[in-house]
Amino acid sequence: MTLLDTTTPTTTGGTISLAEPRDFITLLKPRVMSLVVLTAVAGLVVSPGALHPTLAVISILAIAVGAGAAGALNMWYDADIDAVMTRTAKRPVPMGRVSPEAALSFGLILSILSVMLLGLASNWFAAAFLAFTIFFYAVIYTMGLKRSTPQNIVIGGAAGAFPPMIGWAAVTGDASVNSFILFLIIFLWTPPHFWALALFKLRDYGDAGVPMLPNVAGERSTKLQIFAYSVVLAPVAVLPWILGFAGVAYGAVATVLGLNFVRHAWAVLNMADGDERMIPAKKLFGFSILYLFGLFAMLIVDAAVAPLLGLGA
Asked: Are 212 and 66 in the same domain?
């Protein structure tokens, strides 16, 4: 078999193909990719300066492909634990539709292509930043942190927080305090988002041997930390308006969303230990996705539309 072989032997000695195009799309983690695209676009449009529209589209495409490449490498390495967890058992590699070798090759090829494309379309600082992000997610988080520490999501969450900084760097060729604020919003959002999931998927992570915080520190400690991160996140998310690189419309939306995030976290904190339904945790997890999409969508609207109406920062 070659590295890109996705076939399996038959009883007659021939082979049949198991992989379909949708399996390789699944390897890219399209839901995660959509969030990466949104946050990268936000970083690009709120940055000072401008990039030719065609080059901007190519740059965002490169960042999206890089995110997909990291997802494919993650699914290659995590196939053993993905097979154990109900949430991930039907992914292409544990199901046998895509071979581990094919997933690895797919991820590596896309990684190289995405970095080269971003370097040619924008600048090599942004490309190097993208390369580091892929490495951080695939190697430092997936291969190192995920199976070794309950702080895996806290530290590893940096990988998911880099895209707006990469979008910013695609325009400016550097990083700044303002772009770091966008990073910080996602970085602080990641623990309550994933720990809410871990609370109602406690058994899954336990069966897979992944030391998520609820499995190691218990439900009470997890709920306290979810609330603490949420209380810090809410005001940090308003900083783009306070610092002047987003307008009052963004500030108002960020404030309302932040108060609701804290409200959901408070409900989780007061949830009875051992509650098998975990309804507050499920609600927080669902709202957290809407929260982040709402924030960064509003940044884009504020930067691209509001100035035309005389409402910009």
From this structure: no
